[in-house]
Amino acid sequence: MRPTSSQEPTGPRLRPALEGIPSYRPGRPAAPGSVAYKLSSNENPYPPLPGVMEAATAAAASFNRYPDMMCSALLTALSERFSVPVTHLATGTGSVGIAQSLVQSTAGPGDEVMYAWRSFEAYPIITRIAGATPVEVPLTPGEEHDLDAMAEAVTGRTRLIFVCTPNNPTGTAIARPALERFLDRVPSDVLVVLDEAYREFVRDERVPDGLEIYRDRPNVCVLRTFSKAYGLAGLRVGFAAAHEPVAAALRKTAVPFGVSQIAQDAAIASLRGEEALLERVAALVAERSRVRSELLEQGWTVPPTEANFVWLRLGEDTEEFAAACSAAGAVVRPFPGEGARVTIGEREANDLFLKAAAGFRKGR
Ligand code: PMP
């Protein structure tokens, strides 16, 4: 019989490292029953293409079966589309799933994982879940990565560096010379992850394509996703390109069967329907220019953005601003005390947001 005493544990022993780790906070949905537009999660406002919907529906007919664990057909399609060898590719449960695998593959207690701050909010969470130490290097006053400071912050314990370009939530992207200079300074045993979740929205020609950069650099891994430009956020599928040891580690650490067959087939259909999807991206990029220009005219400071969102640094006014936007029918993403990130949506949604932003400025 188990002894009973006042020392009886009250539940399973959880790792102390989990204490104090903040939970991932998703962008707020519109209130139930409201007609507000959701501009809080950098989603694609367009519904699925008919061909993508057909592929997903066909795959759904056999969801009593496990998916292809190796994602073979998707890897072949990605390899052809991006001219990357299959052995350099890995898929995952969204690019955030791959990011988590990368941390788990490289870092544990005593190791450091570095990233700019503010950046994608999953980085500190997945770092601390692995028991590793986050090293956060502040953005420059212009809301860009401070790559010199990051290079200087590398220690003998640095195992992985996330470089988010374009950066979530500021939208700023890194030009080739600055990125190459930084990569030249990072020791070759430190993995640099170029998180290019928003790559398809980049129009600045000085910003390099990570898939060209990684080829000559065995310590670079490029992260891409089907969630943004391709509009499959709800299906959870992303991919990475890296040299073989890193790609192999990703395959080893991935959750088995983590990418559903529906997601795999929808991703393949999206690559086939890429032309139509990239036209939608172009329309969003045009809306991005319009939104930013209008905000600048209204008197806001808005960093140049290469992503599908804009960033307003509002400090203490952030939550009031977000509430005003919600009341006007546009739900944005507040980062309390810092600023608000506003996804570029359909024209009507952007108009509602712009009107709320103008009203907020006038009220100051
Ligand atoms: N990286 C960045 C920079 C992001 O903003 C996001 C999503 N917000 C992701 C990765 C993860 O996207 P997903 O897991 O849907 O691929």
Automatic annotation (TrEMBL):
Enzyme class name: transferase
Catalytic activity entry: an aromatic L-alpha-amino acid + 2-oxoglutarate = an aromatic oxo-acid + L-glutamate
Pfam annotation, one family: Aminotran_1_2
EC number: 2.6.1.57
Ranges for domain Aminotransferase class I/classII large: 38-349
InterPro entries, per the entry: Aminotrans_II_pyridoxalP_BS (IPR001917), Aminotransferase_I/II_large (IPR004839), ArAT (IPR024892), HisP_aminotrans (IPR005861), HistidinolP_aminotransfase (IPR050106), PyrdxlP-dep_Trfase (IPR015424), PyrdxlP-dep_Trfase_major (IPR015421), PyrdxlP-dep_Trfase_small (IPR015422)
N6-(pyridoxal phosphate)lysine PTM positions: 228
Keyword Transferase on entry: yes
Positions of the UniProt region annotated as Disordered: 1-26
Alphabetical UniProt keywords: Aminotransferase, Pyridoxal phosphate, Transferase
Cofactor: pyridoxal 5'-phosphate
PROSITE patterns per UniProt: AA_TRANSFER_CLASS_2 (PS00599)
Source organism superkingdom: Bacteria
Quaternary state and interactors: Homodimer.
Family: Belongs to the class-II pyridoxal-phosphate-dependent aminotransferase family.
NCBIfam families: hisC, PRK03321.1
Function according to Swiss-Prot or TrEMBL: Aminotransferase that catalyzes the conversion of aromatic amino acids and 2-oxoglutarate into corresponding aromatic oxo acids and L-glutamate.
UniProt-recorded name of the protein: Aromatic amino acid aminotransferase
